[in-house]
């Protein structure tokens, strides 16, 4: 024991010496003191900000700076401050969520009795009282409960399990009022089910185990109250030990921008180097002295005032060349647009506001819109390749519905879903069922607390029990050992008796005298509750005697033995004595029950077919069986069980005896329970799979539950081959089987289900981990069950780092925080499991279905808009900056700017700012219509009173590849836009140079055209050209778009020309009047703009013709052939690399490689025959 704590009013102050942490929790990144330094450090992770910081510093050196330092400093300050404000606002939202959690109420013992306080007030050694359904504020040892020391907690927010876990108070403290003592326990650790300690109570030493330990974040159920002593607080609690530090997330586009900026920086340095070398050569050849350099160079304050020229002593041309390099490095800094950072901030905030206001992502059940906590990764929503999802509360509603009861060969319940004319897939059945019962199906009973819903129509099953007409209640004469079940009604009654007695549920009494059931899992409660609704009512147990109300008559049934359900047994059995007959009732998984049946089962074939039908619908099934014992058999078994007590192998021996008893059973029926999925989960997941998004379900639930939910939500499909990795299996052998499957059946879908114990061993084995990474891209679905929060994060990290794919994690509980923080994109769901997932997320949603529009629509559009915006930004800056380079050779390499200083400052910040931002917020390549009435999003939809006819909306998943494959912001397209900018900048400069040279036109006053006439003509052409270029690529026009393009862009530019024309100190004073009075200007402007815009139109036409549907289909067919060949080749290469690493026989690997080669050859021959098909397309 390493931790010692005192509790009680008198002794608790002694805990101060240990400096235990408070119970205050923070998930935010900054506080008042750390915000400025940490946020500044975060801003300068961007290469652009570092670059402009260097430019700002260099601009203070007047000998090399062509402009005022404020021109460089002001934009940088604006960008950094804006980003910091946005970052601070997002962190402030997390502070609000933290304060909401820390201010949650709790009840603490004081000298004046129990007093209401907040979570943040709880300290080590406090005695707190928890009421029923209250979330526990800290890790505690339970001392007393309202129900004889027994209580139940629900830990779904910690491990994803909805079932109740029984806990018990310390026996010595349950019968007395314990308010002082000492506890020694183990140090804090992340193991949820590990606790060991000792309670020193007066002269007693009492052992404490995990049975006495209640976890922070869990919910108290089934008792009115519980009292306990706090042993771990704040960051020491189990839930916080399982959480990871919040990570700063940078989008993939931001990383690519950094790379592109480095490219441009290298090019800029190269251009400046050329100019510096040319200047140095000219300086040396012409023997230029520094006096010429200093008077003609840009390093002076003003020629209009009598200010001394800054004249440092430069000894030679080499240093003058260096200054030329620095001067042009400053002059050409507009190659890298600082306004891009500002524009991105505006765009991402605007996109975030639109997402938050989207009514189609509003969830009425919890009154929640989408909440955007981090806008920095908006575009990554359009590049998701792997989705990692929790199960409980994320995919499901935590509501179990009793659907089907099979008694012998008869089915009772909702059989409409099994109509033979319906399609087989679960998704379509779900839609048909919802459509057919949209206005008819209503729940008769909903118990939110127990997590069940009852809609079962029991009229037929109730009537047959009492039916005496042999035509309606046929004889079956089923012999169970020496016990005879005469007719169908008796068989139905026996099934219901099994459900009412074979369980671990307890009664929860209400104030009005009624009761509900509480138990270890909602599905078990659903079965007992179904028997109750069918008039076989379990009324509790006292002194080993069950009270069962059978059709209004209370019968006493003696419970002799109970063998609980666990993941190894996968079944539960009870031995009861009913009316003098000793019966063994068993319910469990079909595979387990079937292997324990006696020969010649009359109902086995029929029930087996029905179970197969149920599983295809994704229902959770159990088989029901029984056995009748005589007194001698029972006495022998009872004596054998008692004889094992006190031995060294009691548990092992009892397990063997129970296994022997649970043999030669008689199958009497089956049940099917639906774990209620959230609305539109199957449809959403189906569209994700259609969009080539791999979905992995990570859950703390057991394998059978995870598998059933996988089938329910369409992750596990009928045509899939499923591979299981369970404890005791040969992992390497199964991986080999998967590899063989990929080679031999490349077109077959496959899935893998893996348990947490196997996963832990696998991650510790480097070779097996590599093998898993190699196989992962070929697995369409992966389900990980019985995993810890840390293992969830490990799986996300594995895919993110090893495969380099964009990952998204979604969950609703504290057990999901690790994977939410680890993934590129973290999504929290407002659920019933607290706010931890929401607090740790980048985006919060009301239900899983909201992901459809968030990812497939908003994410896709965000990626397209931002990628095209960035490409356009670099284009408009290169066309604006490259004339500076050409002009250098006409100004003696003196660093003189060809443009007015104010035009350089306003070009990015005013003239071209708003149109780009507006387009990046509102543009759409495929118009998405919003319905005025309820719409179910997905490949299949049902609307009330309105027929869905938007076929484009159904095709959205097929269009998602644009972001996944990063088809827009590629190096190829970047350099293409960059090259167009260089070419058009060159054409623009020289067209005006030759059309408006000094000897061509003479003004009315006798003067030739000057620099500013040439400069303003060129800047006007550039402004019109970049606006036309943006308009050409805009696909969705609104009134806001027209205003932005015409008024805020061209309008502000011409306003600048008008104002500068009348300001005497302006460099272009009077130039505008002269410009607009010259026919040469109009002619030159028309020729240059039209010639370059025709070039843009030609390129746009080529692009759109390439993107026709037929060409798209051809490209898709070719890409599929290439992808198949690439996958086989890649798998072959990886298998070869692992010959030495894997513990695999060499001959086996050679065999696999030969199979791969043969598959590759076949694919190659097929691809050679494919062009004819392409030509047809």
Automatic annotation (TrEMBL):
GO BP terms: namely: phospholipid translocation
Q: In this protein, which residues make up the domain named P-type ATPase A?
A: 102-176
EC number(s) reported in the record: 7.6.2.1
Where does the record place the P-type ATPase N-terminal domain? 11-72
Q: Which domain of life is it from?
A: Eukaryota
> Which segment of the chain is annotated as a signal peptide?
none
- Alphabetical keyword list: ATP-binding, Coiled coil, Magnesium, Membrane, Metal-binding, Nucleotide-binding, Translocase, Transmembrane, Transmembrane helix
User: The P-type ATPase C-terminal domain covers which part of the protein?
Assistant: 838-1104
Q: Where is the active site?
A: 390
Cofactor names from the entry are: Mg(2+)
Write down the membrane topology.
Multi-pass membrane protein
Residue intervals passing through the bilayer? 48-67, 257-281, 325-347, 870-890, 902-922, 974-992, 1012-1032, 1039-1059, 1079-1100
Compartment(s)? Endomembrane system; Membrane
Q: Where ATP is bound, by residue?
A: 390-392, 524, 565, 587, 620, 699-701, 786, 792, 815-816
- Which catalytic reaction applies to this protein? ATP + H2O + phospholipidSide 1 = ADP + phosphate + phospholipidSide 2
Q: Which residues form a coiled coil?
A: 1114-1141
* Name of one Pfam family that matches: PhoLip_ATPase_C
According to its record, what are the GO cellular component terms? plasma membrane
Q: Name one GO molecular function term.
A: ATPase-coupled intramembrane lipid transporter activity
Similarity comment: family membership:
Belongs to the cation transport ATPase (P-type) (TC 3.A.3) family. Type IV subfamily.
The entry's protein name is: Phospholipid-transporting ATPase
Q: Native species of this protein? A: Paramecium sonneborni
């Amino acid at each position: 024991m390493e931790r010692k704590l005192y509790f009680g009013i008198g002794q608790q102050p002694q805990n101060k010496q240990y400096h235990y942490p408070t119970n205050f929790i923070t998930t935010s990144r900054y506080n008042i003191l750390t915000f400025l330094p940490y946020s500044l450090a975060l801003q300068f992770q961007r290469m652009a900000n570092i670059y402009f910081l260097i430019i700002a510093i260099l601009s203070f050196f007047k000998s090399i700076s062509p402009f005022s330092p404020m021109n460089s400093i002001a934009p940088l300050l604006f960008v950094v401050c804006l980003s910091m404000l946005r970052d601070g606002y997002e962190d402030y939202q997390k502070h609000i969520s933290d304060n909401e959690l820390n201010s949650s109420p709790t009840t603490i013992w004081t000298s004046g009795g129990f007093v209401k306080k907040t979570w943040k007030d709880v300290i080590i050694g406090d005695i707190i009282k928890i009421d029923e359904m209250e979330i526990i504020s800290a890790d505690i040892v339970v001392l007393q409960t309202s129900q004889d020391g027994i209580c139940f907690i629900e830990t779904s927010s910690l491990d994803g399990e909805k079932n109740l876990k029984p806990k018990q108070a310390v026996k010595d403290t349950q019968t007395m009022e314990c308010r002082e003592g000492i506890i020694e326990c183990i140090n804090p650790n992340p193991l949820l089910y590990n606790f060991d300690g000792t309670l020193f109570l007066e002269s007693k030493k009492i052992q404490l185990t995990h049975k006495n330990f209640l976890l922070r974040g869990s919910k108290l159920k089934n008792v009115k109250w519980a009292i306990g002593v706090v042993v771990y607080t704040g960051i020491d609690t189990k839930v916080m030990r399982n959480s990871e530090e919040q990570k700063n997330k940078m989008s993939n586009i931001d990383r690519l921008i950094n790379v592109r900026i480095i490219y441009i920086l290298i090019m800029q340095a190269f251009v400046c180097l050329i100019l510096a070398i040319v200047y140095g050569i000219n300086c040396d050849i012409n023997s230029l002295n520094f006096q010429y350099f200093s008077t003609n160079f840009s390093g002076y304050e003003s020629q209009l005032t009598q200010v001394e020229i800054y004249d440092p002593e430069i000894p030679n041309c080499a240093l003058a060349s260096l200054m030329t390099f620095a001067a042009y490095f400053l002059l050409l800094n507009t190659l890298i647009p600082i306004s891009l950072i500002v524009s991105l901030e505006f765009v991402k905030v605007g996109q975030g506001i639109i997402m938050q206001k989207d009514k189609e992502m509003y969830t009425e059940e919890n009154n929640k819109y989408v909440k955007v906590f981090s806008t920095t990764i908006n575009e990554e929503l359009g590049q998701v390749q792997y989705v990692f999802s929790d199960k409980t509360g994320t995919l499901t509603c935590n509501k179990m519905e009793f659907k089907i009861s099979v008694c012998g060969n008869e089915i009772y319940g909702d059989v409409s879903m099994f109509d033979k004319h319906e399609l087989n897939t679960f998704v379509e059945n779900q839609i048909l069922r919802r459509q057919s019962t949209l206005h008819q199906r209503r729940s008769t009973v909903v118990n939110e607390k127990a997590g069940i819903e009852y809609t079962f129509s029991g009229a037929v099953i109730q009537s047959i029990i009492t039916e005496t007409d042999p035509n309606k209640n046929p004889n079956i004469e089923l012999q169970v050992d020496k016990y005879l079940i005469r007719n169908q009604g008796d068989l139905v009654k026996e099934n219901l008796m099994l459900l009412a007695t074979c369980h671990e549920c307890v009664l929860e009494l209400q104030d009005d005298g009624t009761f509900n059931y509480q138990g270890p899992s909602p599905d078990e409660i659903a079965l007992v509750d179904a028997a109750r609704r069918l008039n076989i009512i379990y009324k509790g147990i006292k002194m080993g005697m069950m009270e069962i109300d059978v059709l209004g008559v209370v019968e006493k049934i003696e419970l002799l033995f109970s063998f609980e359900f666990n993941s190894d047994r996968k079944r539960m059995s009870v031995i009861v004595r009913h009316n003098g007959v000793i019966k063994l009732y068993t319910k469990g998984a079909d595979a387990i029950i079937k292997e324990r049946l006696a020969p010649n089962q009359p109902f086995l074939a029929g029930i087996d077919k029905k179970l197969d039908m149920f599983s295809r619908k994704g229902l959770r099934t159990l088989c029901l069986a029984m056995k009748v014992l005589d007194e001698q058999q029972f006495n022998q078994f009872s004596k054998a069980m008692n004889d094992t007590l006190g031995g060294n192998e009691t548990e092992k021996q009892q397990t063997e005896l129970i296994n022997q008893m649970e043999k030669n059973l008689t199958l009497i029926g089956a049940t099917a329970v639906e774990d209620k999925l959230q609305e539109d989960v199957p449809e959403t997941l189906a569209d994700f799979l259609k969009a080539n998004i791999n979905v992995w379900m990570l859950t703390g639930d057991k394998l059978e539950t995870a598998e059933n939910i996988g089938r329910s939500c369409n992750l596990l499909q009928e045509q899939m081959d499923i591979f299981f990795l369970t404890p005791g299996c040969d992992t390497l052998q199964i991986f080999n089987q998967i590899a063989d499957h990929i080679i031999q059946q490349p077109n077959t879908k496959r899935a893998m289900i893996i348990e947490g114990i196997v996963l832990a061993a696998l991650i510790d084995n480097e070779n097996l981990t590599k093998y898993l990474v190699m196989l992962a891209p070929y697995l369409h679905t992966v389900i990980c069950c019985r995993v810890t929060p840390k293992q969830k994060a490990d799986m996300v990290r594995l895919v993110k780092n090893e495969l380099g794919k964009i990952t998204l994690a979604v969950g609703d509980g504290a057990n999901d925080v690790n994977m939410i923080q680890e993934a590129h994109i973290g999504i929290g769901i407002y659920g019933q499991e607290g706010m931890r997932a929401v607090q740790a997320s980048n985006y919060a949603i009301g239900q899983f279905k909201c992901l459809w529009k968030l990812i497939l629509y908003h994410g896709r559009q965000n990626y397209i808009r931002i990628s095209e915006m960035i490409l356009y930004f670099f284009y408009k800056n290169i066309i604006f900056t490259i004339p500076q380079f050409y002009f250098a050779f006409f100004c003696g390499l003196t660093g003189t700017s060809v443009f007015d200083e104010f035009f350089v400052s306003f070009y990015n910040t005013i003239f071209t700012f708003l149109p780009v931002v507006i387009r990046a917020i509102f543009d759409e390549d495929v118009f998405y219509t919003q319905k005025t009435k309820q719409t179910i999003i997905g490949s299949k939809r049902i609307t009330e009173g309105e027929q869905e006819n938007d076929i484009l909306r159904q095709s959205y998943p097929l269009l998602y590849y644009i972001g996944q494959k990063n088809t827009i912001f590629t190096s190829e397209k970047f350099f293409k836009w960059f090259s167009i900018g260089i070419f058009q900048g060159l054409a623009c400069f020289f067209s005006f140079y030759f059309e408006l040279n000094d000897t061509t036109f003479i003004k009315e006053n006798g003067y030739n055209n000057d620099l500013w006439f040439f400069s303003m003509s060129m800047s006007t052409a550039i402004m019109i050209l970049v606006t036309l270029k943006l308009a050409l690529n805009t696909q969705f026009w609104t009134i806001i778009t027209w205003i932005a393009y015409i008024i805020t862009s061209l309008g502000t530019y011409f306003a600048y020309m008008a104002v500068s024309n009348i300001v005497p100190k302006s460099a272009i004073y009077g130039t505008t009047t002269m410009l607009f009075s010259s026919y040469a200007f109009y002619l030159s402007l028309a020729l240059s703009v039209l010639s370059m815009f025709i070039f843009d139109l030609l390129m746009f036409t080529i692009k759109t013709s390439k993107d026709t549907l037929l060409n798209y289909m051809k490209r898709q067919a070719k890409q599929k052939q290439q992808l198949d060949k690439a996958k086989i080749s890649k798998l072959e290469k990886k298998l070869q690399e692992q010959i030495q690493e894997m513990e695999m026989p060499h001959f086996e690997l050679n065999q696999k490689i030969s199979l791969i080669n043969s598959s590759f050859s076949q694919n190659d021959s097929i691809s050679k025959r494919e062009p004819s098909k392409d030509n047809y397309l």
